[in-house]
Amino acid sequence: MRNTPGVEKCLSELAALLGHAGYRDGEGDLIRHSRDASTAQACLPIAVLRPKTAEDVSAIMRICRQADLPVVPQGGLTGLSGGAVPVPDSVALSLERMNGVIEVDTINSSLTAWAGTPLETIQAAARSAGFDYPVDIGSRGTATIGGTVATNAGGIRVIRHGMTRQHLLGMEVVLADGTIITNLRSMLKDNAGFDLKHLFVGSEGCLGIITRVVLRLSPMPNDRHTALLALPDYDAALACLASARRTFQGDLTAFEAMWPAYWKLACKMVVTSRPLFSDEHQIYVLLEITGYERGHFETWLEDCFATGLVTDGVLAKSGGDAIAMWSIREAVGDVDREIGAHLNFDIGLAPSELADFARECDRELGEFVTQDILHLGHVADGNLHVIVPVPADDERRKLEIERRLFDLLAARGGSVSAEHGVGSLKRPWIGKTRSPEELELMRLLKRTLDPTDIFNPGKVIP
Asked: Which residues of 9-21 are buried (b: 16+ CB within 10 A; e: fewer)?
């Protein structure tokens, strides 16, 4: 342990500062905060810190910095890249008590919330005021708004609404020395100098701890229509996407593709009232639009059938139907109970490259697996999820799978992380995506804002 006498004094000061509700070191608490939803190796923190205010976080950082005690920020622990897993001899700083919507400003179309507020709570507060917060992910009930900002989460409606970055108006953040930077204004245009908040978007807790955010809200969508389509091949899916963009333009909100192996597994996992399709197809698309009358949507679908782009399809007749359709796509969050241990890749490529990349993965990785490799993703924004079954204790095989997949990706100019962050699991591979010059600039930012490497060490930057 680094500086053991100093650490013991530090822990005593932290316990006195936070009290029983804010300082936990019991076995159950340590185990709960020892890992996130990824396959990264769990690591028990020394203690779990649960502040209530930015001032608490500031005091924590001043104390921990004196003892050179690493601090690992944690939100909902839903990350898939190991970004919230403690390192040896560190404390976990959980934002679970910094929870709640502070204000919904209906005049300025904004919402202010504590960073530990679940995304689903943000969405509900926006809707109750007649607005929408459109960033949406399957783990919405657990993932926190601070975590989605720290990873620049995208989700299922990026095609229309963009990533989290596009919805951030203001932020409060605590730096490594305890300085609190507060800019919680709800202005859409503010070009007075550097836009500092964007330094921390996607930084995964390596540069500072986000404590409060101001979010830009969107108008409440109306006339939302959802359809599940079966298509003859991936080229037809791209043509269908192009047609939908021409027809519906900005009102196309989701275009999700599922390859056959994933489709069969998800349909096995999700109980539907009736079989959706009688035959097997080469690709399945979940499509959503808003702002158009149902008749217009149906006419477009008829044209897709007539031209051969779509071979079968089901149109949601109710909100319940739409939820059932989305449950097939979102079953990805629970595939481990069906396939067991696996590697979960979240890669970014040009949409035109995804099908060839999926085929290359099947070919190059086939010798390492005894079950089907699963492919699905947000085709419209080039985000593919690749799930590779592999024994949990076979580290050599996992390393070779990662090497081959990321080599294939680098050859096509892709990104090792499209929306789930780099964390610790993708840290060794970020050089496949970023140039040496880019990596050195990241290191410079880290050294400047966190010179003693106290924030989330061992994450993101190699």
From this structure: ebbebbbebbeee
Q: How far apart are CA 102 and CA 141, in angstroms?
A: 18
Q: Confidence band (pLDDT; 50, 70, 90) for 274? A: low
> Helix or strand or coil: residue 168?
strand
Q: Are 225 and 294 in contact (CB under 8 A)?
A: yes
Distance CA 200, CA 115 (A): 13
How far lies 295's CA from each of 276, 290, 301, 317, in Å? 22, 13, 10, 12
Backbone CA torsion sign across 225, 230, 232, 234: positive
Check if the beta carbon of residue 202 is closer than 8 Å to that of residue 152: yes
The pLDDT value given to residue 272: 60
137 contacts 122 by C-beta, under 8 angstroms = no
Tokens coding 453: 């490497």
Residue found by looking up tokens 């007075």 in the block = 192
pLDDT in tens, 381-401: 999 999 999 988 899 999 999
Whole-angstrom Cα distance, residue 294 to residue 93?
A: 48
Distance CA 283, CA 232 (A): 7
Please give the helix or strand (H or E) that residue 55 lies within, else none. Answer: helix 54-66
Structure tokens at 337: 């109970």
Give the integer Cα–Cα distance in Å for 69 and 64.
5
| C-alpha to C-alpha distance for 162 and 146, rounded to whole angstroms | 17
Output the CA torsion 446→452→457→460 (10° steps): 10
Helix, strand, coil fractions of the chain, as percent rounded to 5:
40, 20, 40
Q: Please say whether the beta carbons of 353 and 87 come within 8 A.
A: no
Contacts of 25 (CB under 8 A, 6+ apart): 11, 46, 47, 48
Concatenated DSSP letters of 259-301: -HHHHHHHHHHS--SS-S-SS--SEEEEEEE-SS-HHHHHHHH
Contacts with 429 (C-beta within 8 Å, 6 or more apart), sequence order: 402, 406, 416
Q: What pLDDT is recorded for position 278?
A: 79
Domains of the chain (ranges; CATH) run 4-97 (3.30.43.10), 101-219 (3.30.465.10), 225-332 (3.30.70.2190), 337-432 (3.30.70.2740)
Radius of gyration of the chain (CA): 23
Q: How far apart are CA 135 and CA 130, in angstroms?
A: 16
pTM: 0.90
Residues comprising the chain, all counted? 462
